[in-house]
Amino acid sequence: MSKITILPLYLVVIFIMGSAHAQTPKQVQGKDDELTTLRSQLEEMRTSFEEMKKDYDVRFKQMQDKISKLDEEKERLEKISKEVVAPVRGGEIKLPSSFQQPPIPEKQPWSPSHPLQIFGAGKSYMNISFDALFDFGTSTSPNVEELERGDHDPKQRGLTLPNEEIFLEGAADPYFKGAADIVYKLDEDNETEIELEEVYMTSLSFPLNLQLKAGQYFTEFGRLNPQHPHQWDFVDQPLVNNRMFGPDGLRSPGGRISWLMPTPFYSEVFLAVLDSQGETAFSFRNEEEDALYGRTPADRGVRSLGDMLFVPRWTSSFDLMDSHTVLLGASAAFGPNATGMDTNTQIYGLDLFWKWKPPTQSGGWPFVTWQTEGMYRRFEAGRDSLAGLPRENLADWGAYSQVIWGFKKRWTAGLRGEFVTGETGNFGDGLRPDRTRLSPVLTFYPSEFTKLRLQYNRDEIQSHGSEDSVFLQLEFSIGAHPAHKF
Amino acid sequence: MRLLRLARNDKKGIISGKSLFIQLMVYCSLLIAHGSLLCSDSALAKLNIVATTPDLGAIAKEIGGDKVDVKSLARPTEDPHFVDARPSFITILNKADVLIEGGAMLEAGWLPPLIEGARNKKIQIGSAGRVIGSDGITLIQVPTTLDRAMGDIHPMGNPHYLLDPLNGKVVAQHICDTLCKLDAASCPHFQTNLEGFSRKIDEKMVEWRKLTALFKGTKVVTYHKSYDYFLERFGLELVDTLEPKPGIPPSPTHINALIPRMNEDGVKAIIIEPNKEKKTPEFIAEKTGAKVLVLPGTVGGNEETEDYISLFDYNLAQLAAAIGGGH
Asked: Has residue A108 got a pLDDT over 70?
């Protein structure tokens, strides 16, 4: 800019010097001629100077315009970048220039003091969620609780609140994850019952592909037992699960170790060692009347490792083509029961889960699943001379098979068929009748977090007859985004 | 069954039944373990990379080249939010040296149980082998409050950031850093690949910008909020989505309000993913004259989108053909 302002001055100096030179000619002849020439020359110089001045004025103005434009642009950019500095990680600025590559911040090295975000929810140490189930329904039988024997099944004509659970989970440290499931429910008198259903820790990176789980949790036996009621495809517990594991399913304090086998396909073996006593170890050291078959409970306690409950399981899975996945499993449970000092129970189970989900699924739909489980139980009932009952082996077995079809986004339709049978033995308690049940079900999911389910049950009960029931179930889930196991 | 019957006759049946079952299981496991150990000690040299989605896998391939094996879990045409946690993925993750996830809760519904099952130290959060793609990406639409009344919103922001090719460069850089840490000897190789990949994207950007100049500023609607980064990068204007709220299917009320708005705004295209139903978009297309465009959201969504670059080549060519002329 300074060069430009000097230029006109420089030209003026030249001009003055030029005129001074013109005033001192050596020859005075033809003064008039000379004067005219000089005049014309002067005129020429004046006009050329005017032109130059004009030219420089224009250029000067252009440059000034350019500068003020640049200033404006600078201000605008500053404003924009201030606006787009979102509260992002690393605090980097998103530049509006579309060709700009976003800066790459350094990855933070991990240190043990950092929270582990195993469940990815982001900014909390613990994920909390709450899930509520409401059952409305009626039945041809006034005693709904005798048909629906599961602890989280609809219990009466009208409304039941069978399972309202708080689920807490999070990584305790880099080695273990902890979880707890606390269930609230209303009993028939609308009194609140609280159940510490599950509380357990799971190892995150044990060596040798082993995983340790300790605490109380739904034991890995079959497909349905480890699931919570809100994950079920039906309103109620299958008959066979109730016969083998009682109203609550198999869960007992203890631990298990599992080994992910180094096979090319998924294969895992489990061995759980659990406390064998109580209601939730139904077919084992359970002193409830339902599981004693007329005998007086024996006060046997735990004398050796053999008095624990052992639950081995093997499971394997295969992907068939691009859209089909099959999961197979075999489980068993061995432990003492309370009908004698040396009486034991063995339960064996087989399970199959097959799922079709096409490669163009959206929101999880469409899909078809087929789930089948069969179980066999051998129960050694002890001799009770007072009750007049001999030592005998009671055999029970049963199975269910269900198909669920997610036919339209948000909708599923399903059908379950099941039966259960058992040897009555010398004690005719009527608690173990042969039973078959057929249940069609229709479910609507307004979103991933709510559902409405309509189910009809047709029951055929040995030496009782048939019963019909219909249930409407509502569910809502709030809190941390659920992650689904296969 | 015969074994069971034998056991039942025996007074001490429980013991033989139990130990037989456990013994059988132990023998079977040992047999399988032995067999698989015999046939699995050859492939040690290559890094085993697992990517949750095919686009992440495609970028990993660009950087790793022949020094790595790459597997992608989600199928290219499926909804990445609702992938089944297939047990076979546990086995794949168990053997992984590197896990590349999209992050921003894209895989929140299925990845956590898989990682728990895989019991692999190398890919735990904070381990050298865990790459979170969204690290260092400026995510858009980060909600200020979390409320599911607004639909299944993403608490950390829109996770479909790989549809902006410049974000692909950032992810490539992260992958390169991780691979260099795990295989220092091959680092120059990875860096050369990274440079090549970034240069290719820069060159392509010039080409793509020329192409997109034809339809810059055109108004469009999408089915889900999955193309936002793409639209922003290539200068298209999003009017609304067919979903009234994220994850909630189009409702008649929403669609009836959307149609006049689209007509008013002169919306030219309805962009949907290959996995979305076409009935609603086609109905709206009929009422508004906008064109339905099925644009793959990830690599491998169709035959033409075999790698990260061709994903944009294809999508932009589709757009140019559909709306490039009229503008």
From this structure: no
- The whole-number average pLDDT for the span B58-77 is 97
What are the residue boundaries of the structural domains of chain A, listed by start?
A: 2-83, 201-479
Q: Note the pLDDT of residue B152.
A: 81
Q: With an 8 Å Cβ cutoff, are A205 and B121 in contact?
A: yes
Range in A93-102, A306-315, B51-60, B223-232 the model is least confident about: A93-102
**Which residues have C-beta within 8 Å of that of residue B193, sequence separation ≥ 6?**
B62, B63, B64, B65, B176
Contact (CB<8Å) B249/A105: no
Residue A325 is nearest to which of B32, B84, B127, comparing CB atoms?
B84
For CA atoms A205, A208, A209, A210, give the dihedral sign: negative
> Residue B155 is nearest to which of A122, A267, A344, comparing CB atoms?
A122
Residue A238 backbone phi and psi in degrees, to 5: -60, 150
| Confidence class for position B327, pLDDT limits 50, 70, 90 | very low
A99: contact with B, CB 8 A cutoff: yes
**Could B166 and A362 be called an inter-chain contact, meaning their C-beta atoms sit closer than 8 Å?**
no
ipTM for the assembly: 0.86
The predicted-structure confidence for A274-320, as pLDDT tens digits, reads as follows: 999 999 999 999 999 989 999 999 989 899 999 999 999 999 999 99
Closest chain A CA to residue B170:
A104
B141 inside 8 A of chain A by CB: no
Tell me, yes or no, if B119 comes closer than 8 A to chain A by beta carbon. yes
CA distance A479 to A474: 17
- A366 prior amide bond cis, ω within 30: yes
Do the chains contact at A310 and B22, CB–CB below 8 Å? Answer: yes
Which structure tokens are listed for A473? Answer: 């179930």
Maximum separation of any 2 CA atoms in chain A, in Å? 165
pLDDT over 90 (residue A224): yes
Task: Using the predicted structure, report yes or no on whether residue A399 has a pLDDT greater than 70.
Answer: yes
User: What average pLDDT does the segment A410-433 reach?
Assistant: 90
Say if B325 is an interface residue toward chain A (CB within 8 Å).
no
All domains of chain B, ordered by start, with CATH?
A: 2-38 (no CATH), 47-205 (3.40.50.1980), 212-323 (3.40.50.1980)
Q: What is the pLDDT of residues A235-263, one digit of tens each?
A: 999 999 999 999 999 999 999 999 999 99
Q: Give the pair of three-digit tokens for residue B242.
A: 């067919």
Q: Which strand (E) or helix (H) includes residue B200?
A: helix B187-212
Confidence of residue A37 (pLDDT cuts 50, 70, 90): confident
Task: Identify the pLDDT of residue A81.
Answer: 52
- In angstroms, what CA-CA distances link B299 with A213, A429, B62, B75? 39, 64, 13, 10
Q: Which CATH class is domain A201-479?
A: mainly beta
A310 and B CB contact within 8 Å: yes
Hey, is the C-beta of A299 within 8 angstroms of any chain B C-beta? no
CB contact under 8 A, B32 and A267: yes
Contact A336, A345 (CB under 8 A): yes
Q: How many angstroms separate the CA atoms of B237 and B257, rounded?
A: 19
